[in-house]
Write a structure and sequence with these properties.
Blueprint (H helix, E strand, L loop, with lengths): L1 H23 E2 L2 E2 H12 L1 E3 L19 E3 L6 E5 L9 E3 L16 E3 L22 E3 L21 E3 L29 E3 L11 H5 L7 E3 L23 E3 L7 E2 L12 E3 L5 E4 L12 E3 L4 E5 L12 E3 L4 E5 L12 E3 L4 E5 L12 E3 L4 E3 L1 E3 L11 E3 L6 E3 L12 E3 L21 E3 L7 E3 L2 H10 L2 E3 L4 E5 L11 E3 L4 E5 L10 E3 L4 E4 L9 E3 L4 E5 L12 E3 L4 E5 L10 E3 L4 E4 L13 E3 L4 E4 L3 H6 L5 E3 L4 E5 L12 E3 L4 E5 L23 E6 L2 E6 L8 E3 L4 E4 L13 E3 L4 E5 L12 E3 L4 E4 L13 E3 L4 E5 L20 E3 L9 H15 L2 H26 L1 H25 L1
Parallel strand pairs: 5-7, 7-8, 8-9, 9-10, 10-11, 11-12, 12-14, 13-15, 14-16, 15-17, 16-18, 17-19, 18-20, 19-21, 20-22, 21-23, 22-25, 24-26, 25-27, 27-28, 28-30, 29-31, 30-32, 31-33, 32-34, 33-35, 34-36, 35-37, 36-38, 37-39, 38-40, 39-41, 40-42, 41-43, 42-44, 43-45, 44-46, 45-47, 46-50, 47-51, ...
Antiparallel strand pairs: 1-2, 3-6, 4-5, 48-49
Helix pairs in contact: 7-8
C-alpha cells in the first residue's frame, strides 16, 4: 500500500512537471525563445529575405538556420552564415539585439560572412555558457574582442578569422589582449587568422595554455617574432593542424616545430622564414600537407624528406632551394599535389617523372631542370590534371600518334622546346581550361584546324604568343568559351574574326599581319592590335563597345577621324603611328579615368583644348608628337597632377612656355604614380628613340617640347621638376639665359636645348646634375667659359657646344681671356637690369662714394678737420643769437 501511494505521488509529480513544461511550449517552440528570435530579426536589415521562413508559432520548424533539441524543444543552434559572401546584411540602430540571451541552451552560433561593421562585437556573446561552436569569421565588427569570451569554458570551436573591421587602407583594428584564451580549456579548434595581433605582448604564451587544442590558425596576424624554443608546449601532444602563413618572422625555422609529431597539416607559406630546411623535418612522419612556399629558404632538400611517407601535398615554390631532385622525390610516391616551382633546382628531371603515379598536380616551372622528356615518362601519370614545366630548358619529344592517359585542366609549357610542329597530343585533351605555350616554344607552321574544335568546349585562357605560328583565324570564334586570348608576336594573317564570344574580355594580337577593318566586338574590355596592317577608318560602331577600357591600335594603316563617341571607361588609348586626321574628339573629355593617351605620328590638327587639363586629371602619359597641332601650350596642363610624360614635339605650337610648367606635381617628385605595367612606349631621350617596355616606363619622367615655334625664355620654375629625367626644348625660338635654377633638376639624365637663340653663359649649376649623361647646347648664342666642374667634365664631345661662337674653353680648343670673360659677364647682367634700376643704382653709389670720400679727407687732414668743425661752431653761435633776437 505504501509502495502504491509512493508510486502514485511520483507519477502525479511527473505529470505536474510535464504540464508546467507544456505550458511554456507552444506548438513545439518555447514562446520566450520565439519572441527573442523575432526581436533579433526586427533589428536586421535582411536584404535578400533570408529570414523569410521565420513566421508561425513553431520556431523549431523555421528553415532559416534555427534548430531545436528534439527532446527538450529548446533552440540549440543558430546558423546564420552568409553563403552568398556578398556582405549583404547591415544593422539598424547600430546595435545587435541582446534578446538572444533568452536562448540559454544555445550550443552552436554562426554569424560568419555577414557585415556588422556598424557595431562592436557584443559582450553578451560571452554569456552563452553552453556554447560549443562559435563562428564570427569575416563579420567585420568594429573595435576589439571582448574578454568575456573567456567565459565560454565549454567551447570546442572558436573561429574569429577576419572578424574585425578593415578600413580602405587595409588597416585592421588591433587586438591588445589574448589572456582570456587561457580559460577556454576545452577548446580544440582556434582560428585567429586575419586579426591584428601586433600589439599582443606574447600571443604564443596565451595559445600555449590550451592543452586540448587540435587545430590552430594564425595566418596573416602581423607577427614578426616567434619563439626559437618553447620549454613547455601544452599542445604538442595533440596538435594536428598548424597554420602560421603570411607573417614576417624573419628567422630560421624554430626547432620546437619538429617536436609536434602529431601534425598532419603544417602551413608556413609566406611567413618570412630563411635558412636551410633541417633534417629534423623527417620527424613529422604524420604530415599529409607541408607548405613552405614563398619564404627565403635555401640549400638542398634534406634526404630525411623521404621519411614523410604519408605526405600528399608538398609546396615549396618561391624559395632559393638548389640541388638535384633525384634521390628523394621519386620515393614520395603518395604525393598528389607537388609544387616546387621557381627555385634553383637543376639536373635532369626525366628519371623520376614517371614514378609519381598518384600526382594530380605537377608544378616544376621556373627552375633550371633539363633533359629530354618523352611520352614514356607520362604513361603512369593517369590522374594528372595540372602540368607546369614552364621556364625550364627541357625538350619535350612526343610522337604524333601518342594518346595521353590523362585529361589535363591546366597546361603551362612556356619556354619549353616543343616545336617545330604544333603538339599533336593536345587534340586528345578535351578538358583543358588554361593553355600556355608562349615565349619561344619554337612552334612553327600553320595552326591545325582541329585545335579550334577542341578549344571551343573548355578553354578559357589561351596564350600562344612569341612563336612562329601562322595561318588565319576562324571567321568566327563565337562558339568558344575564351576569356583571355594572347596570340601576339606570331605570323597570323588575313582578316580578323567577325564575331567573338561574349565572355572574351582580353584580346592581344600585337605583332602579326592581320589586314582589313576592325570588326564590331562589343564585349571586349582590353584590346591590343598594334603592329599589324589594319586599314580603313575607325567606324562609329566602336560606340557599341560599352565595356572598352584599354584600346591599342598603334602602328597600323588606319585613316579618317577618331570616332566622336570614344569616351567613358577608357583608361588607355593608343592610336599613334597611323594616318588619322581631324581634331581630337570632344567626347574624350568624358574619359575622366584616362591615364594613357598616345596620338603621336598622325595628321591631327587643332590645339590643346582647355578641357584636357581640367577633365583628364588622371593622365600619366600624354603624347601628341609629330602631328599638326598648333596654338599655345595652355597653362592648364600644369593641372595634371600625375603626368609623368608630356610629349608635344614636332608640331606647330607657338607662344611662351607656360610659367606654370614647374607645377607638374608628378615631375616635381621622385616617387612613381603609375603602377600599371600593361603598356610600352617610345621616348625620345639622349638623342635617340628609347623603347620602354612595360614597368620600366614607370621609371621615366619626360618633358619634350622640341621642334615647335615656342618663343620667350625658359621659365625659372622648370628647376622645380626634380623628378624629371628627360628635358628636350631643342629646335624652337627660345631666347634669354639658361636659368640658374635648372641645376635643381637632380634626376635629369638628358638635357637638349640645341638650335635655339639662348644667350649668356652656361650656368655653373649644371655641374651639380650628377645623373646627367646626355647634353646638347649646340647652335645657340651662348658665350663665356664652359664650366669645368664635376659632372660637366664627363662630357668629352665638343660637338655638344658647336654653333656658339662666343664660347671658350679647353674642350673646344679656344682659350678664354679673363678680361673679356669678365666684361662679357658684366654685359650679360647689364642687359637684364632695366634702365630705371640703373638710375637708382648709380644715384646710391654716387651718394655713398661722395660721403665716404668727404669723411676720408677729414680723417686724414688735421688742418681741414679743425677748420671744418670751427666753421660748424661759428654757424651754431650765429644761429643761436638770431634765435634769441627773434623770440
Amino acid at each position: 500500500m505504501a509502495f502504491t501511494l509512493s508510486f502514485s505521488s511520483s507519477l502525479f509529480c511527473l505529470l505536474g512537471i510535464l504540464l508546467l513544461h507544456g505550458a511554456a511550449v507552444t506548438s513545439g517552440c518555447f514562446s520566450m525563445e520565439r519572441e527573442a528570435l523575432l526581436d533579433f530579426k526586427a533589428g536586421i536589415h535582411d536584404t535578400h529575405n533570408r529570414l523569410s521562413s521565420w513566421v508561425g508559432r513553431d520556431c523549431c520548424a523555421w528553415a532559416g538556420g534555427v534548430a531545436c533539441d528534439t527532446t527538450t524543444g529548446h533552440v540549440v543552434m543558430l546558423d546564420l552564415r552568409n553563403t552568398n559572401f556578398t556582405g549583404d546584411w547591415a544593422l539598424r540602430d547600430e546595435r545587435m539585439n541582446s534578446s538572444l540571451l533568452a536562448l540559454s541552451h544555445l550550443n552552436h552560433l554562426d554569424f560568419s560572412f555577414n557585415d556588422f561593421s556598424g557595431i562592436r562585437m557584443p559582450e553578451f556573446i560571452g554569456s552563452f555558457m553552453k556554447l560549443r561552436y562559435l563562428n564570427l569569421s569575416s563579420t567585420r565588427f568594429m573595435g576589439g574582442i571582448p574578454a568575456r569570451l573567456g567565459n565560454l569554458s565549454s567551447l570546442y570551436v572558436l573561429d574569429l578569422s577576419d572578424a574585425l573591421y578593415v578600413d580602405d587602407n587595409g588597416d585592421r583594428y588591433p587586438v591588445d589582449n589574448l589572456d582570456w584564451l587561457s580559460h577556454l580549456t576545452s577548446l580544440k579548434h582556434l582560428d585567429l587568422s586575419g586579426l591584428n595581433l601586433t600589439d599582443v605582448p606574447d600571443c604564443f604564451s596565451s595559445v600555449n595554455m590550451l592543452p586540448s587544442l587540435l587545430a590552430l590558425s594564425m595566418s596573416s596576424v602581423g607577427l614578426n617574432t616567434i619563439p626559437a624554443s618553447v620549454v613547455h608546449l601544452n599542445f604538442t601532444s595533440s596538435l594536428t593542424f598548424l597554420d602560421l602563413s603570411s607573417n614576417n618572422f624573419n628567422t630560421t625555422l624554430p626547432k620546437w616545430l619538429w617536436n609536434i609529431s602529431s601534425l598532419t597539416h603544417l602551413d608556413l607559406r609566406d611567413a618570412g622564414f630563411r635558412g636551410v630546411i633541417p633534417n629534423a623535418i623527417g620527424d613529422l612522419g604524420s604530415l599529409t600537407l607541408l607548405d613552405l612556399g614563398f619564404n627565403q629558404l635555401e640549400g638542398t632538400v634534406p634526404r630525411s624528406m623521404v621519411d614523410l611517407r604519408r605526405l600528399k601535398e608538398l609546396h615549396m615554390l618561391g624559395n632559393q632551394l638548389t640541388g638535384n631532385l633525384r634521390g628523394w622525390l621519386e620515393q614520395m610516391t603518395n604525393l598528389i599535389n607537388l609544387d616546387l616551382s621557381y627555385n634553383l633546382f637543376n639536373g635532369s628531371m626525366s628519371s623520376y617523372v614517371g614514378k609519381l603515379s598518384n600526382l594530380t598536380e605537377f608544378n616544376l616551372g621556373g627552375n633550371s631542370l633539363g633533359g629530354v622528356i618523352s611520352e614514356v615518362y607520362f604513361e603512369n601519370l593517369t590522374r594528372l590534371q595540372v602540368l607546369d614545366l614552364s621556364y625550364n630548358p627541357i625538350t619535350i619529344s612526343i610522337g604524333k600518334s601518342w594518346v595521353p592517359p590523362f585529361q589535363l585542366r591546366y597546361v603551362d609549357l612556356t619556354k619549353s622546346q616543343l616545336g617545330p610542329q604544333f603538339p599533336e597530343w593536345l587534340q586528345f585533351q578535351t578538358q583543358i581550361e588554361e593553355l600556355y605555350l608562349e615565349d619561344y616554344c619554337e612552334i612553327e607552321g600553320t595552326m591545325p584546324a582541329w585545335f579550334w574544335n577542341i578549344s571551343s568546349s573548355t578553354i578559357t585562357v589561351l596564350d600562344l604568343s612569341n612563336n612562329q605560328i601562322g595561318g588565319k583565324l576562324p571567321s568566327s570564334l563565337k562558339f568558344t568559351k575564351l576569356k583571355i586570348l594572347y596570340l601576339f608576336s606570331n605570323r597570323f594573317e588575313g582578316p580578323l574574326p567577325t564575331m567573338l564570344p561574349s565572355t572574351l574580355y582580353l584580346l592581344s594580337l600585337i605583332n602579326n599581319s592581320f589586314t582589313g577593318q576592325l570588326p564590331i566586338w562589343p564585349h571586349v574590355t582590353i584590346l591590343t592590335l598594334s603592329n599589324n596592317m589594319l586599314d580603313g577608318g575607325l567606324s562609329s560602331s566602336i560606340c557599341q563597345w560599352t565595356y572598352l577600357e584599354y584600346l591599342d591600335l598603334s602602328n597600323n594603316k588606319l585613316f579618317g577621324e577618331i570616332p566622336y563617341c570614344l569616351g567613358d571607361g577608357l583608361s588607355l588609348l593608343q592610336l599613334n603611328n597611323n594616318s588619322l586626321s581631324g581634331e581630337v574628339p570632344l567626347s574624350l573629355k568624358n574619359c575622366t579615368e584616362l591615364q594613357f593617351l598616345d596620338l603621336a605620328q598622325n595628321n591631327l590638327v587643332g590645339g590643346i583644348t582647355l578641357w584636357m587639363g581640367e577633365n583628364l586629371q588622371q593622365l600619366v602619359v600624354l603624347r601628341l608628337r609629330s602631328n599638326m597641332f598648333s596654338g599655345v601650350v595652355p597653362w592648364q596642363l600644369a593641372q595634371f597632377e600625375q603626368l609623368q610624360i608630356l610629349d608635344l614635339a614636332n608640331n606647330n605650337f607657338s607662344g611662351l612656355i607656360p610659367h606654370s610648367i614647374g607645377n607638374l606635381s608628378a615631375m616635381r617628385s621622385i616617387s612613381q604614380y603609375y603602377k600599371n605595367c600593361d603598356y610600352e612606349l617610345d621616348v625620345f631621350a639622349k638623342g635617340q628613340d628609347l623603347y620602354y617596355l612595360q614597368c620600366s616606363l614607370n621609371l621615366m619622367k619626360s618633358l619634350d617640347l622640341s621642334n615647335n615655334r615656342l618663343t620667350g625664355g625658359i621659365p625659372k620654375g622648370i628647376g622645380d621638376l626634380v623628378g624629371l629625367k628627360n628635358l628636350n626644348l631643342s629646335r624652337n625660338h627660345l631666347q634669354g639665359k639658361i636659368p640658374w635654377e635648372i641645376g635643381g633638376m637632380k634626376s635629369l639624365e638628358s638635357l637638349d636645348l640645341s638650335i635655339n637663340g639662348l644667350s649668356g653663359s652656361i650656368p655653373e649649376s649644371l655641374s651639380t646634375l650628377y645623373s646627367l649623361s646626355y647634353l646638347n647646347l649646340s647652335y645657340n648664342n651662348l658665350s663665356g667659359m664652359i664650366p669645368s666642374g664635376r659632372q660637366l667634365q664627363t662630357f668629352i664631345d665638343p660637338s655638344i657646344y658647336m654653333g656658339n661662337a662666343e664660347l671658350c674653353g679647353p674642350l673646344i680648343s679656344k682659350s678664354c681671356s679673363n678680361n673679356k670673360t669678365t666684361q662679357n659677364i658684366i654685359q650679360e647682367y647689364k642687359k637684364e637690369i632695366p634702365e630705371w634700376l640703373w638710375f637708382y643704382i648709380s644715384m646710391v653709389l654716387g651718394y655713398v662714394m661722395g660721403f665716404w670720400t668727404f669723411c676720408g679727407i677729414l680723417f686724414l687732414k688735421d688742418a681741414w678737420r679743425h677748420a671744418y668743425f670751427h666753421m660748424i661752431d661759428d654757424m651754431y653761435d650765429r644761429f643761436w643769437v638770431q634765435w634769441h633776437l627773434i623770440f
